[in-house]
Structures are given as C-alpha cells and as structure tokens.
C-alpha cells in the first residue's frame, strides 16, 4: 500500500471513530438518566453544603424523574471526595457538589494534589454562596472587631481559632486573610466539620473563629456565641445587627465562598448542558430560594461558564493570601 493510500485510510478511520463516538455520546445523552445519579459531597453530613446538596437533589429528582442520592466522602479538607469524582466515569452519573476551596485554594496550598481543578472537571453551576461570621466564646471580653484585635494582640500566647473543614477550608483562609489586615498572631485548630467547630467554640475548647454564617446564626441568637462581624461586603438580613468586617475598621475586606456543582471532565456536552439547565431551573424555584435564604445562603444558579469565571477569580485571590501568609502543606 502506498504512503498516500495509507494516510487516506488513517484519515478515514479517524473520521469513522469520531462519528461513532459522537453517535454513542448522543445516544447516551438521549437515554440519560437511566439510573440513579450520585452527588458526592466531600465534607461531613449536617453542614450547610450537605444541606444544600440534599435540597437540590430533591428538585433534580423531580425534574429528571430519576433518583439523586447524596454521598458524603469527607477527608483531607475535601480533597478525598473531590479526587474520587475527578477519577469517576464521565457519564453524568457521578457529580461533585463542593465548596470552591479545594478547587481554588488547594492548588496553591498543597505541594501536590491528586486532581487538577481545570483539567479534571466540567463546571455545571455555581449554586449558592455564603459568608462567614467572626464569633467568639461568650467569656471573651470583647464586643467588636476592634476590641477583638486588641484582645488578640494582648495575649501572651497566640490565640487559638478553629475552622470547620480542616486545613485550607473557608474559616482557615478567612482568618489568615483577616490577620494580614489586623496583624495579630493566632494558631489554627482544624475540625472535621462545621457542627464540630461550632461546638468547639460553644464549649470553650477554642475561643474564636470565622465560621459559616448558616451554622452559627441561631447559636448566636441564643447567646451561646458572640457574633462580631460578617465577612461579606454587605450586612445580611439574617443577622441585621452584626456589622461587616469592612465596616468595623477594615475597608475593602470581603470573603465569600461558593458551593459549586461539577462533573468529571469528558462528560458528554448534551448531558452537562442538561444538568446545567435543570440546576438553574431548580435554583429559580421560590420555595428552594426561601429555604436557602432562611439558612443565610445566597442562591446563584449560574451557568457553567459563569462558574468557571467565579472559580478563576477566587483562585487568584486566595493565591495571593496564601503566598503572603506563607502557608504550605506537603
């Protein structure tokens, strides 16, 4: 066979393979979903992320007329569950519902990650965002951010503060970000989940922390914690008497975090697009919005492209914070 004939045969074979793959993808998209879809949440059950995943799963089960189950796979600050989805079959039957931090902060924090946030995932939607609240144990003799900073600076030893998702989670990053502005020493105490760190502060094992607002608002109302400031740029109607950090003497300070749904890279585009469409439709539901807002969560329901931009912007912010704080994990 001549070289030109061989090249022609190779080209024709490639075209046939591409057409076959496209046909299979189209057929699988038409049949999708034909079985239960799993949403992996790489943090413990009971926190705001888990609660939101389960509310969304209920809506998606109705629109797809197929079961959606939430599987909690915590560990390594979200890296274990995130990696499991990165390596899953890209068929639309395994999805990731995650805080943005494993995708935005961890690539800078960790010397080596088992997944690549861009290479291994297809964003579906940024579902909701939330702020954190600076809280202290009631015994701490402060009533404002200014007093808290003065108190922290007056201690003979660095202040112990907690966060609810391990090293590199939103509470850890936000406190380090705040310390860069305020200039006091503190030692991070990681907890497994939001509920555990709230109880740690309530019980006095640690004295302070930037904790997820949805998990501390009611506890603060009950007087078991003191809420000093919100990390978002604006006050929230959920805690109308609590100022922002920016209003408390640190203009420009803002830290919010997203809950994002993604699929493994390589998922057929018709399936990814349908998931995006149905998630956005679910997020427009008045009852779902009301349930999220009642937990101090801000519904978003973005496109996949918009989610990519949000993740990119957050990555740039936390890269600067992490390098300035000189935080690095092996």
* SS field, number of helical segments: 12
Span of the ends, CA to CA: 55 Å
Which structural category fits the helices and strands? alpha/beta
Describe the sheet with the most strands.
8 strands, mixed
State the domain count. Answer: 2
The shape is globular
The third-level CATH topology of the largest domain is D-Maltodextrin-Binding Protein, domain 2
CATH architecture of the largest domain: 3-Layer(aba) Sandwich
| SS elements, strand count | 10
In round numbers, the mean pLDDT is: 90
Under CATH at level 1, the class of the largest domain stands as Alpha Beta
What is the CATH homologous superfamily assignment of the largest domain? Answer: Bordetella uptake gene, domain 1
């Amino acid at each position: 066979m001549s070289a030109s004939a061989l090249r022609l045969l190779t080209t024709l074979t490639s075209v046939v393979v591409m057409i076959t793959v496209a046909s299979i993808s189209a057929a699988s998209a038409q049949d999708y979903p034909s079985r239960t879809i799993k949403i992996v949440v790489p943090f413990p059950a009971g926190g705001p992320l888990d609660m939101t995943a389960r509310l969304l799963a209920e809506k998606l089960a109705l629109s797809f007329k197929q079961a959606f189950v939430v599987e909690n796979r915590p560990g390594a600050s979200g890296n274990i569950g995130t990696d499991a989805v990165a390596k899953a079959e890209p068929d639309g039957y395994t999805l990731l519902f995650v805080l943005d931090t494993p995708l935005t902060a961890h690539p800078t924090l960790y010397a080596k990650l088992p997944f690549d946030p861009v290479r291994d995932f297809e964003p579906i939607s940024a579902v909701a965002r939330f702020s954190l609240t600076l809280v202290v144990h009631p015994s701490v003799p402060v009533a404002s951010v200014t007093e808290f900073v003065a108190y922290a600076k007056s201690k003979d030893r660095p202040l112990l503060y907690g966060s609810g998702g391990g090293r590199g989670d939103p509470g850890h990053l936000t406190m380090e970000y705040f310390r860069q502005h305020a200039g006091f020493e503190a030692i991070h105490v990681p907890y497994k989940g939001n509920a555990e760190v709230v109880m740690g502060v309530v019980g006095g094992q640690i004295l302070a922390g930037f904790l997820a607002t949805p998990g501390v608002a009611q506890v603060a109302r009950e007087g078991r914690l003191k809420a000093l400031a919100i990390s978002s740029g604006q006050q929230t109607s959920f805690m109308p008497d609590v100022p922002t950090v920016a209003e408390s003497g640190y203009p420009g300070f803002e830290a919010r975090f997203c809950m994002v749904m993604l699929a493994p890279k390589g998922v057929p585009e018709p399936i990814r697009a349908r998931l995006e469409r149905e998630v956005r439709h679910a997020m427009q539901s008045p009852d779902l919005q009301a349930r999220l807002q009642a937990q101090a969560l801000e519904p978003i329901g973005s496109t996949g492209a918009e989610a990519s931009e949000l993740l990119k912007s957050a990555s740039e912010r936390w890269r600067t914070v992490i390098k300035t704080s000189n935080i690095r994990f092996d």
